[in-house]
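Explain the record.
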Amino acid sequence: MALPSSAALGHHCPPLSATTHSSLAQAFPRASAVEAQPHQERRLRASLHVPTTLSNLLHLHVGSAHAAGMTVGDLPTPAAIRPDTPAFSPKEDIASLFQEIHGRGDWSRLLHPLHPWLRREIIKYGELAQATYDGFDFNPFSEFCGSCLYGRHRLLAKLGLARTGYTVTKYVYAMSQIGLPRWLERSLHADAWSTDSNWMGFVAVSDDAESRRIGCRDIVVAWRGTIAPTEWFEDVQGTLRPLGDGHGDAKVERGFLDVYTSKSERTRYNKTSASEQVMAELRRLVNLYLEQGERVTLTITGHSLGGALALLNAYEAASALPEDVPVSVISFAGPRVGNAAFGERLKEKKVKVLRAVVKQDVVPRLPGILFNESLKTLEGVAGKKMEWVYEHVGVELGLDVKSSPFLKHGVDVAGFHNLETYLHLVDGFMSRELSFRREARRDVALVNKASGMLRDDLRIPPNWNQAANKGMVCNAYGRWVKPAREAEDIPSPAPYREATDAMAEELGRSL
């Protein structure tokens, strides 16, 4: 098993320079060379035994795949597995709590026990993050591998998420030639839609009805994560890079920053970086709704690598957008991103961060799993913060696989990290002291969509979310072929797509 090496978040920094109000490509200058790890870190890395360390950190033993002695009839929430019960809670007007739900007070009154309104909002943002997986073309035999399966006007409806009340306004693409060598999906076709870029997520905004319900015009950025947990040790090197002038001692993991800021004139989709693409859209939307006199919030979500990108995006957005626009991050399985100074800067910018973390998931302990805690011990001895120590930031919502009677309790590293596992555990969570809630109604079968975490006696097959016949269809001549995409779902160069969208909207207004 290959897993990543070292990194984490942090907290501190002086006022920002004016450069932060442009793109991060300028505000975060690239280091001329890979930063050298400190001497203490190298010695600790050499002295640690990886298998023993991971075994201790997972807090698991290999045993029965079932909760001891339980049968399906004993499960506390039969509604969650019955096909004749609704899988969604009714939408309630939560406008009276909109500020606290978006992080005012660091969710102190809403987490223990978990307020049902906050629980539903966390799941909503998690489902938007899940859409970046469900809408992604992973098939290497497709000429569109690495793109989104659907055009932005159809994405949420095609994935059954029209009920969320959000409209996608912008797709975001990231470079493939960056510091995380295996995180991108590439087509085997020479005529692939792009050999340099992958679809990385989207910007969406709440519609009028949803905005009234939640008490604000909510702009969402959803970031995709693609590195499997078995690849993290190898692909994330745990190298902290200074953010440069105007950012004090703040440092972030090099590979995450590369994904966020890399661009090339040779590419069709990344002539501008993911940072520049998303920030241009955020400025446009924020200005639009503020000019209309609306209350605007920005919520950034992502899973795994997407959780890391969400923090970088929040850091930049809080620097560039008006101060009266609250910025919050709802992340799932997010790794450590930077040092203590980086975390302090996020606090100074009033960015609110809520991290859902499964106790058995190894990725939130990365980078830095092997020696980070030992370095923090050295901090205590030295009496000051070490700028090469990774730290998380924000409030943690701790989840436990063992709390759910529906899940296997053996070791499944990929299953622990799966976003659907996270959403299932959030749906059942009430507090640290209380058991899995009986009223949970989110469809349990979703857990096995891309994993095998559900108990075998539930009779739900693992990894069931697959294209029929692997996407092949029989045509009128009796030949099996790959179906053509709908015209709207074919990737096109960003300027062309934006121009055609603008023409279509102008035509619609004139009719």
Observations:
- Residues 1-23, 29-56, 60-71, 378-384 have pLDDT under 50 and may be disordered.
